C-alpha cells in the first residue's frame, strides 16, 4: 500500500499541497472525504456515531481547561466538535486540509477555520491552551509523520496545556466486520487476518488510508514527540459490537446502555481495544516543573 510522505515535503503532484509548509494530504484521503463519504453527520446519523460523539464530548469536558480557553482543533473536519466547543464559550480554530470540510466548518460561523496540515502548523509557539487531534493521527501511516504532528501540537500548546488525540484501535475493523457477520466471507476473513499483522487499513474492506493502533504504538507516538505518557480512555466501550452489528434496532435505551458500559470500562486495560477509538490525553509539563523548561 502506498503510504503518506515521511519527514520530507512531498514530491507528488496528484495531492493537494497544504498551505502551511508543503506537506501533502494523501490524494486518496482527499478523494474519500470529498467524493465518497460525507463526514458532516457521522456523529449523529446512527447509534454508533452518537455513542462516539457523546463519549468524546464527555471525556473532553473532563480534561479541557475552562472556557474561554483557546482550542486548536487540528483535523477538525466539518467542525462538529468545534461548534459544540464554541457554543460553550471556547475560542476555537479548526485547521483542516480538506476543502469540503473547511466549507462545512465555516458554515457554522462561530469559530475560525484555516487550511493546514497537522505536521506543519502555522500557529505560533504556546498559542493554544488545548490542541485536539481527533482524526489526523490515524490517517498518518508513517510513525515519523505522527511524531511530527504530535511535536507540532506540543509546540503550539502552552506549557501545562492539554493535548487530546484520537486513535482507531488495531482490532476495530475486526470487531466491526465480525459484528456484522461479514467474517463469514472468506475474503474478508483473510483481509482481517492480514490487518492484525500490519495495522494498515485494507481499503477493500472500507474507509481510506489509515493506521490502526495498538496501545504500545500510541505510547510510542507520544514518546517520539517528547510528550509525557498519556492517559488512554476507550471511547465507545464494550457494547460497541452490539450497536455496530445492525442486528438490533437503533433504540435510545441501547445507546444509554452502551454509554454506561463505556464509562465503566474506559480505563480497563483488557477492554481498551474493544472500543473503536481511544482518546489519549496528556498535559504538557508547565514551566518550572521538574521536567519543564
Ligand atoms: C474522521 S475525520 C474526523 C473529523 C473531526 N475531527 C471529528 O472527530 O469529527 C478525520 C479528519 O482528519 C483530517 N486529516 C487527515 N490527515 C490530516 C493531516 N495530515 N493534517 C490535518 N488533518 C488531517 C481529515 O481531513 C478529516 O477531516
From TrEMBL:
- Highest rank taxon of the organism: Bacteria
Ribonucleoprotein listed as a keyword: no
Question: What SUPFAM superfamilies would the database entry show?
Answer: S-adenosyl-L-methionine-dependent methyltransferases (SSF53335)
Q: InterPro entries recorded for this chain?
A: Methyltransf_11 (IPR013216), SAM-dependent_MTases_sf (IPR029063)
Please state every residue range assigned to the domain named Methyltransferase type: 72-164
Q: Which GO terms describe its molecular function?
A: S-adenosylmethionine-dependent methyltransferase activity
| Keywords assigned by UniProt, alphabetized | Methyltransferase, S-adenosyl-L-methionine, Transferase
Q: Which GO biological process entries does UniProt record here?
A: methylation
Matching entries from PANTHER family are given as:
METHYLTRANSFERASE (PTHR43464), UBIQUINONE BIOSYNTHESIS O-METHYLTRANSFERASE, MITOCHONDRIAL (PTHR43464:SF19)
Q: What name is this protein filed under?
A: Class I SAM-dependent methyltransferase
Q: Which organism is it from?
A: Actinospica durhamensis
Amino acid at each position: 500500500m502506498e503510504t503518506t510522505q515521511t519527514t520530507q515535503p512531498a514530491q507528488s503532484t496528484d495531492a493537494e499541497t497544504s498551505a502551511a509548509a508543503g506537506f501533502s494530504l494523501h490524494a486518496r484521503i482527499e478523494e474519500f472525504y470529498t467524493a465518497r463519504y460525507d463526514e458532516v453527520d457521522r456523529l449523529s446519523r446512527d447509534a454508533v456515531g452518537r455513542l462516539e460523539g457523546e463519549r468524546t464530548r464527555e471525556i473532553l469536558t473532563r480534561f479541557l481547561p475552562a472556557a474561554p480557553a483557546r482550542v486548536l482543533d487540528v483535523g477538525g473536519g466539518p467542525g462538529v466538535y468545534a461548534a459544540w466547543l464554541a457554543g460553550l464559550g471556547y475560542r476555537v480554530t479548526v485547521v483542516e486540509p480538506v476543502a469540503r470540510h473547511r466549507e462545512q466548518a465555516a458554515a457554522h460561523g462561530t469559530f475560525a477555520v484555516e487550511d493546514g496540515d497537522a505536521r506543519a502548523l502555522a500557529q505560533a509557539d504556546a498559542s493554544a491552551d488545548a490542541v485536539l487531534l481527533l482524526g489526523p493521527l490515524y490517517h498518518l501511516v508513517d510513525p515519523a509523520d505522527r511524531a511530527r504532528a504530535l511535536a507540532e501540537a506540543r509546540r503550539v500548546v502552552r506549557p501545562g496545556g492539554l493535548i487530546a488525540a484520537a486513535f482507531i484501535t488495531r482490532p476495530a475493523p475486526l470487531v466491526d466486520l465480525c459484528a456484522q457477520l461479514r467474517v463469514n466471507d472468506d475474503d474478508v476473513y483473510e483481509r482481517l487476518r492480514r490487518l492484525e499483522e500490519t495495522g494498515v487499513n485494507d481499503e477493500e474492506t472500507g474507509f481510506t488510508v489509515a493506521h490502526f493502533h495498538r496501545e504500545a504504538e500510541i505510547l510510542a507516538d507520544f514518546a517520539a514527540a517528547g510528550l509525557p505518557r498519556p492517559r488512554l480512555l476507550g471511547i465507545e466501550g464494550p457494547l460497541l459490537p452490539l450497536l455496530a452489528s445492525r442486528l438490533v434496532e437503533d433504540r435510545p435505551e441501547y445507546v444509554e446502555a452502551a454509554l454506561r458500559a463505556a464509562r465503566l470500562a474506559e480505563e480497563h486495560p483488557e477492554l481498551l481495544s474493544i472500543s473503536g477509538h481511544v482518546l489519549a490525553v496528556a498535559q504538557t509539563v508547565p514551566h518550572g516543573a521538574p521536567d519543564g523548561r
